[in-house]
Design a protein that fits this description.
Chain lengths: 268, 262
């Protein structure tokens, strides 16, 4: 009986801890919303410049019900996935190649260092010239944004192969191919996944940027279009959706990462 | 590990010298090491840390490519790394992303999947870890991880087993257990065993021949002592204690000499 009671107490304690942690997690956003709504109620700010959370929520609801928000988000998401898939494929393949070969790395290093700092947005003018304002251009911008983080992190991961494992492979006369497959690549996986997550974030930012400038659909276009109509609440709905989707994408990638890197016991 | 008698190879070392670096920076780590380890016997290398024990073992493992002198393994001159030697490092060096079973299988090549699994499981059972085959290394205790490393070193049935302070990082009790276990394995496998340790007790318990090393002087190996005590050895026997004392005081003397010179 007392064992049951103690188990109950333990569960209550755990529940309490979780609730506290959750409260801490959402405290700031909730506070922000409350203050924001308060500002509106006191008439301190103009609704046209800063619409209250209540109005934004109502507009968000309308846009969701009509399917307009989902349509724009879907289009943006599709572009991101296309560009990201391309970047992930090329970034990992090239990163592994460059990480394994010193001469290849040396030969490409300067070029990569020069192109990497150019922000994807600076490519937009060229992209419009080359691709027009069609889909290819946007996918290209996204690709550019996601490619470098994935490339660089993959190379880093490959190069960080532990010398101790190199020695082990020598002692065991492991073939080079097997060494790469069983030691180098799995060892680089955490770093590659970091690159993927950063790349995904950049890709998501890039799609919005690209759509702000040249698009007739997508969540970036939704925002720009609303600004021209002075529909500030729609601007906010679009922005919040962008943040939410970005967070969601990261959560998904983190889940995949955890699944792939199970062997790192303390990985939480 | 077919159960049939796999005989170890003897090791004959003649005038082995190993220097790191060049010119004024050159560090003579191994000086004029001459030593024979009979086939199927256990040699323990003892000495304070930094005296070149690991370097010595790395030469035998084929990891150091430049050295002077001659090393014969069986009838073959030493030539690079090879599967005729199994190596256990001080840390287990298990690949963290492979399960225990996969880690041992990593040492095997050219076998069918079925054969591989059979070999691996037999080796794991031999070190008492048959039930941990599917675990990842992070779940293993230090002693268990080192047992897996030993299984990995044994899976190719090496003629010579080289161990570099394999129990150095283990707690006292596990260490004693592992010493018993390595003896049992050696009695089954009949390999030649070279074990580096800084633990004199361990050396006296295990060795047929103890090789005492110390830095400096014209020769790195200061003395080789043949241990004739019958196995299993009693750590409390008078002869055991006397031998341990002798080696310890010898090492202290060496250290004093070295300090006087410096
Ligand atoms: N790769 C290396 N380059 C230069 N010096 C080394 C190298 N490896 C070992 N040494 C030196 O050789 C000496 C002996 O090292 P080691 O064989 O590891 O000693 P032990 O295993 O007995 O502690 C040390 O002084 C160490 O600094
Ligand atoms: Mg050492």
């Amino acid at each position: 009986m007392s064992r049951f009671a103690s188990r109950l107490r333990k569960q209550a304690l755990r529940f309490g801890r979780r609730a506290k942690s959750l409260a801490l997690y959402i405290f700031l956003p909730v506070l922000l919303i409350a203050v924001w709504q308060g500002l509106y109620e006191t008439g301190a700010v103009q609704a046209l410049l800063l619409p209250p959370p209540s109005a934004i929520a109502a507009t968000g609801w309308d846009l969701s019900i009509s399917g307009e928000l989902a349509r724009h988000l879907g289009i943006s998401l599709l572009r991101v996935l296309e560009g990201f898939a391309l970047a992930a494929l090329l970034g990992v393949v090239l990163g592994v190649g460059l990480g394994l070969s010193r001469p290849l790395d040396r030969a490409t290093d300067l070029l990569i260092q020069l192109i990497k700092p150019i922000p994807p947005i600076a490519w937009i003018p060229l992209t419009i010239l080359w691709f027009g304002i069609g889909e290819e251009g946007k996918v290209f911008i996204i690709f550019l944004g996601a490619f470098f983080p994935i490339l660089v992190n993959t190379m880093d991961g490959i190069r960080q192969t532990d010398v101790k494992f190199v020695e082990l492979a020598r002692v065991l006369e492991t073939s080079r191919l097997r060494f790469i497959a069983k030691v180098v690549l799995p060892g680089a996986l955490p770093s590659i996944m970091t690159g993927m997550r950063v790349g995904m974030m950049v890709a998501w930012m890039c799609v919005v940027a690209a759509e702000l400038i040249a698009a007739s659909s997508g969540v970036g276009f939704l925002i720009m279009d609303a600004r021209q109509m002075m529909q500030t609440d729609r601007v906010f709905v679009g922005m919040i959706a962008i943040g939410a989707i970005g967070k969601l994408l990261d959560v998904v990638l983190k889940k995949i990462e955890r699944r792939l890197i199970r062997w790192k016991g303390a990985f939480q | 590990m077919s159960g049939a008698v796999t005989t170890g190879a003897d090791i004959r070392i003649e005038g082995l010298c190993k220097t790191f670096g060049e010119g004024r920076r050159a560090a003579k780590v191994l000086r004029n090491v001459s030593l024979t380890v009979p086939a199927g016997s256990i040699a323990c290398v003892v000495g304070q840390s930094g005296c070149g024990k690991s370097t010595f073992l790395r030469v035998l493992a084929g990891l150091e490519t430049t050295y002077d002198g001659s090393v014969l393994l069986g009838k073959q001159p030493l030539h690079g790394p090879g599967l005729d030697r199994g190596v256990v490092f001080q840390e287990h060096r298990l690949l963290p992303w492979l399960t225990v079973e996969q880690n041992v299988a990593f040492a095997l090549k050219g076998l069918s999947r079925y054969e591989t699994r059979r070999c691996v499981m037999r080796c794991l059972k031999r070190v008492g870890l048959g039930s941990c085959a599917r675990q990842y290394p992070y779940l293993l205790s230090g002693g268990m991880a080192q047992r897996v490393a030993i299984a990995r070193a044994l899976v190719n049935q090496p003629k010579i087993l080289l161990l570099d302070e394999p129990f150095g990082a283990l707690d006292a009790l596990t260490k004693l257990q592992m010493q018993q276990e390595i003896l049992a394995l050696w009695e089954q496998e009949k390999t030649t065993l070279v074990l580096v340790t800084h633990d004199i007790d361990e050396a006296v318990f295990l060795a047929d021949r103890i090789v005492v090393m110390a830095p400096g002087g014209a020769q790195t190996v200061k003395e080789t002592i043949d241990v004739a005590l019958p196995r299993p050895r009693d750590r409390n026997a008078a002869a055991f204690i006397a031998l341990r004392k002798e080696i310890l005081s010898f090492l202290f003397d060496q250290e004093k000499k070295l300090r006087r010179k410096a």
